[in-house]
Amino acid sequence: MAISPALPKLSGADHISNSPVPRDSTIALPRSRSPASAARIRTKNRRKRYLDLHPAYFSSALELADPLSYDRLVRRFQTPAEREEEGRKKGYSGVLEADLWRSEAKIEALTNTQDAGAMTYKRGPDGEILAEEGDEVPKTKEEGMQRWRKAMELRFLGGRDEDFEYSMIDEGEEFDDRGVEEREEEEKWFEEEEPQWVGDAQDDRTQELHVEGETGVQDF
After folding, report:
1. How far apart are CA 3 and CA 173, in angstroms?
2. pLDDT under 70 in the chain at which residues?
3. Which residues contact 134 (CB under 8 A, 6 or more apart)?
4. Whole-angstrom distance, CA of residue 180 vs CA of residue 182
5. For a designed S-S bond to 63, which of 40, 70, 79, 102 qualifies (C-beta 3.0 to 4.6 A apart)?
6. CA separation (Å) from 180 to 51, 105, 140, 171?
7. Is residue 109 a contact partner of residue 119, using CB atoms and an 8 Å limit?
8. What angle (nearest 5°) sits at the alpha carbon of residue 129, between those of residues 124 and 133?
């Protein structure tokens, strides 16, 4: 009976070297920010810092920025005493101006439903103004004020307050938040690290095993 020759045993290094190495995986990190992107982020951070230091920005004077939102988010929860107090601060002409802007905004919302903003107004079959949708109505006074402040904050951060001089903030280093800056610098450092192929790392390890496994003696 023929005896098959014994097959040579493979070392651990031989097993590794003969194994296919996947080449479609990378340790990839996001691309680093462009200078323009970093400048935009710094500008918004400075504007946010300004609002944090000047909460008085969110006064009733902002009502004219979006009369419909203010009416539904803030005024609806005001007591008669609170409206009277607000009226004294605005003065007679200020109250008339706010009423005029609110009326014009409602007419615009009714006639231009495609671009009515966050708050919509619709007429019923008899011409009456219909109530808001359920998700448009804040449940509490606190929720209404929170939604109003958030809307005005986004408007300010986006540079849409045409009556505000943004240059004093955008060019002011005193509004930099060092904590935020340090976190962004750390993130940028990680983003700029050079990606490495997983397969390359495994090939390097395989080569090391080959070197360590060689005895320098040729076997016959």
Report:
1. 86
2. 1-33, 113-134, 178-185, 188-220
3. none
4. 5
5. 70
6. 16, 39, 33, 17
7. yes
8. 90
